[in-house]
Amino acid sequence: MHELKHDFASRCLEIKNYLNFVSSIEAGEIYNKNGKSLDNQIIKVLKANMFLLLYNLVESTVDRAIDCLLIQICNNNIKYESIVDELQL
Question: DSSP assignment, residue 27?
Fold first, then answer.
């Protein structure tokens, strides 16, 4: 579980850095090779990519959390009937 929390924090930091990068581009602080501001269409694509990063973060975290639960259930020989109803579905 500690590894899951560490990976989550690490990915959050990556997303924060990406968001800062996109914000810098949008503010005109980063330019292309010709010294011009990047096209608005590229900024839109970069913003859309942000949603993919967030989705992947959530999906990965939920998937790994379920795996951690399953490992704990198996390692502790917990019976199906003794698991809370929400996990039995």
Answer: T
